[in-house]
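Regression test case RT-17, inverse folding.

Input:
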């Protein structure tokens, strides 16, 4: 099989890249080791920056989002019995869109299917070869048959545990990582959000987040131990803890609806450098992970795609390689900005087991300052809504 760009991974980054390139007349093949049902069922991010929304429109998969989305113009921070509002729309002139990653993946799959360019799901034994030469290719097995995809470039969009980054020799890539001593226990429930805005709650018993997926569906999170046993968290215990951490406003509106989905995700920060290795380009979770506190994970993956697909168009349409050569440097500037913001939000709002009483009081003082200072609120708002591209 011959194509122009071979894409490993059918998450939002790989699918978005394929769709954008297809619309510009560039051929792709997308390989995914998991089933389509698995990919479309993963509950992940749901807060989209304006830049991400713009790219969904550019990819021509925004119609259903525009009909069904929610928007929010700020966030609330709850602490010490107080609720402080940061008006992101007023401060920046931009708001955010609530639209789940599962919906994005569904719409991208449908668009690629209708174009006859749907991903190859359940591709086994995927391996990348010769990406340092002018003859890169990918091998895989499908329905018991061994196949090869020959291409000009390979996009590694296959996540943190994927094969693409793992194919690099250790001396060719540098990684930076911080593993946090806690995770997030998340539940999806059929009940209206407790507030028109997301509520970030800091308490001495840990962090909580009250988010949403639709006017009738809420996504709720609790800070927990990274190795927490999910079986020890029945819905009743979760709601009790959510009310305690969220305060009176949350307690007054939160109902004990049965959870639809329940999971625990560990928190880590991770960056790999560089992101280009010959014909191989890393994007999305294959290149970086951020804790979800700053709502940057999906948006950062889409930012990689925005930079990469425009670089590929410049090459195929004009024969220029400047953007491709600068891909890693351009992406990493944005990645490290998002890393800093996500680390800062996580450090300010979570309870760290090793913290002294002095350090915990400093956290509260930091929240007081951020929510009470116009300059500090602006800093949070402009990072939360997404910094401009170069």
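Golden output:
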């Amino acid at each position: 099989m011959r194509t122009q760009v071979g894409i490993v991974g059918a998450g939002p980054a790989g699918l978005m890249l394929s769709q954008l390139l297809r619309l510009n007349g560039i051929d792709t093949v997308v390989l995914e080791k998991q089933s389509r049902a698995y990919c479309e069922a993963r509950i992940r991010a749901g807060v989209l920056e304006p830049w991400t929304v713009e790219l969904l429109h550019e990819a021509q998969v925004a119609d259903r989002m525009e009909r069904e989305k929610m928007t929010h113009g700020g966030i609330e921070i709850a602490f010490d019995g107080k609720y402080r509002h940061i008006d992101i729309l007023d401060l920046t002139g931009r708001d955010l869109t609530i639209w789940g990653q599962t919906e994005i993946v569904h719409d991208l799959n449908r668009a690629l299917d209708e174009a006859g360019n749907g991903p190859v799901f359940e591709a086994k034994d995927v391996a990348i070869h010769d990406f340092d030469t002018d003859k890169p290719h990918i091998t895989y097995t499908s329905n018991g048959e061994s196949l090869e995809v020959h291409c000009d470039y390979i996009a590694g969009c296959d996540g943190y545990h994927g094969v693409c980054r793992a194919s690099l020799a250790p001396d060719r890539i540098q990684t930076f990582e911080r593993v946090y001593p806690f995770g997030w226990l998340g539940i999806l429930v059929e009940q209206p959000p407790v507030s028109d805005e997301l509520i970030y709650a800091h308490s001495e018993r840990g962090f909580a987040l009250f988010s949403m997926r639709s006017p009738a569906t809420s996504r709720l999170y609790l800070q927990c131990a990274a190795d927490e046993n999910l079986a020890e968290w029945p819905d009743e215990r979760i709601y009790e803890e959510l009310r305690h951490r969220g305060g009176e406003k949350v307690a007054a509106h939160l109902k004990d609806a049965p959870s639809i989905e329940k999971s625990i995700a560990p928190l880590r920060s991770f960056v790999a450098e560089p992101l280009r290795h010959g014909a191989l380009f890393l994007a999305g979770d294959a290149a970086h992970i951020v804790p979800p506190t700053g709502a940057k994970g999906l948006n950062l993956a889409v930012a990689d795609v925005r930079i990469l697909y425009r670089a590929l168009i410049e090459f195929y349409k004009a024969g220029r390689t400047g953007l491709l050569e600068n891909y890693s440097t351009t992406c990493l500037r944005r990645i490290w900005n998002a890393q800093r913001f996500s680390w800062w939000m996580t450090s300010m709002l979570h309870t760290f087991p090793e913290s002294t009483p002095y350090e915990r009081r400093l956290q509260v003082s930091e929240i007081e300052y951020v929510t009470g200072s116009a300059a500090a609120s602006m800093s949070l708002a402009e990072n939360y809504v997404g910094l401009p591209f170069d």
